[in-house]
Every structure is written in C-alpha cells, then in structure tokens.
Amino acid sequence: MGLIKLENVSKIYNDRVKALDNVSLEIMKGDWVSIMGPSGSGKSTMLNIVGCMDTPTKGVVQIDGIDITNLNKKDLTAIRRDKIGLIFQQFHLVPYLTAVENVMLAQYYHSISDEDEALQALAKVGLQDRTEHFPSQLSGGEQQRVCIARALINYPKLILADEPTGNLDEENENMVMDLLSSLHKQGHTIVVVTHDLNVCKRAEREINMQHGKILGEMECEMVCKTG
Ligand code: ADP
Ligand code: ADP
C-alpha cells in the first residue's frame, strides 16, 4: 500500500489554469523520489496537494491510507502535523528566535514542550554548537539544517522538500543532501521537488513533469550512468 496515492488528480486555478492534468502516482513507504520539471510544470502544486496544503479540483488523494480529498482545512492541518515534515527553499525561520527556539516553535504546534528533544533534533543535523544562534548568525546551509531539525520534530513518516538547496552553494547543498540521505536510510519517505540534476540524482526514482502531466519516470541510477 502506497504512502502517497494520487488517482486522476487535476488542479485548475481560477477556472482556467490547469496546473495538474489527470496525474496518477503512487509513492511507497521508504521511497526517495525526486520530481523534476521546468518552472510552471506543476511541481509545487503537486507538493502542496501531497503536503495537505491544498486540495485537488478533481481526483482522489490518499496519504497513509487516509482519503484526504474532501477534508476541510482543519483536518488537513491535523494530518500534515501528524505525518509530514516540510522543507522549503526559503527557510521561513523566525529571525528574532534562536535556532533551538525556532525548533521549539514547531513543537508548540504539536503540543510538545521539551527543550531536550529540540536540542537532540539540532544535534541530529550537526548543529549542537549553534543552538543559541539567531538565523542571521548562521550560514545558509546551517539555516536549512535548522529547518530540517524543525521538520523532524514529530518524527514524520513523510518528508517533503521544495527546492531544498535552491539557496545554497555546492558545499552546503551536499551537506543538506547527505542529511536527507541519512534520513532516508533511517526509514523516512522523501519527496524532493528540484530542477537541480545533482539533487535529483540522489533519489531512487525520478519523476518528470511537464505542462501538469507526468511525462515519465526513471530509476536514478540510469540517469547517473547515461548522464
Ligand atoms: P512549478 O512548481 O513546476 O513551477 P507550479 O505548480 O507553481 O509549477 O505552477 C503550475 C501552474 O499553475 C503555473 O502556470 C502557475 O502559474 C499556476 N499556478 C500555481 N499556483 C497558482 C495559484 N495559486 N493561482 C493561480 N495559478 C497558479
Ligand atoms: P516555484 O519556485 O516552486 O516554481 P512559484 O514561484 O511557481 O514556485 O510559486 C510560488 C508560490 O506562488 C506558490 O505558493 C504558488 O502556489 C504561487 N503561485 C505561482 N504561480 C501563481 C499564479 N500565477 N498566481 C497566483 N499564485 C501563484
């Protein structure tokens, strides 16, 4: 049974922009999938729907066996908090809170208040020496690692990342991708939207999108060998 299942999903904005066009897709527990495609091909729309931030115009979406297609905002939020960790290109850290306070803010939404656990999450991403720093005192790669610690706070089954390395240089990109790789090895299911081929190649499955449709799919090993 797939952790994510999309059946004939379409998303139409303002009655005319077809951002997703009859997409069907199954992602299994433990998969690491990248979604590639040019700007405007529907990647973010797909991630928003899978991440319970938006609902489709047509079709059926299941997350971890739950049909989320017709849920209201409140129920979608509950599922997102229970099952999904989100990582964005823009870090969305609160500038006047320290690294550990930013992670604790995520705990607040899960009704947890445990500084030790927040510190452990930061240690997991290698930031045990940066816990009292403010975002402005951290490098881009370190800020993204705070975001990953924040995303991990509720042990989410599913990690969704939208261009997680879009604002990083190559060294920090590698560090963040190594971290995602170790999370994958620990059993997390990972879906990364990217248009960076190096980021894409780290996944097991590559899904290519164009004009709101899935054009094709390949094993990433093949991309490495041929590319
Ligand atoms: P990508 O992430 O691949 O760049 P998007 O999913 O952001 O693609 O966008 C797909 C299409 O849907 C584009 O034509 C975009 O302009 C449009 N679109 C995305 N979000 C909205 C929105 N909230 N309102 C209207 N149109 C949107
Ligand atoms: P990406 O960097 O992933 O391509 P975009 O720049 O396409 O992201 O979209 C950023 C945000 O703006 C998204 O939340 C998307 O839903 C929204 N958006 C994109 N296109 C439009 C549009 N034409 N009208 C309104 N909102 C849009």
From TrEMBL:
Residues 4-227 form the ABC transporter domain. This is Phosphonate-transporting ATPase. It comes from the Bacteria. One of its GO terms (molecular function) is ATP hydrolysis activity. GO terms for cellular component: membrane protein complex; plasma membrane. Its EC number is 3.6.3.28. Keywords: ATP-binding, Hydrolase, Nucleotide-binding, Transport. It comes from Flexistipes sinusarabici (strain ATCC 49648 / DSM 4947 / MAS 10). Gene3D superfamilies: P-loop containing nucleotide triphosphate hydrolases. It is an enzyme of class 3 (hydrolase). Signal peptide: none annotated. Coiled coil: none annotated. Belongs to the ABC transporter superfamily. Macrolide exporter (TC 3.A.1.122) family.
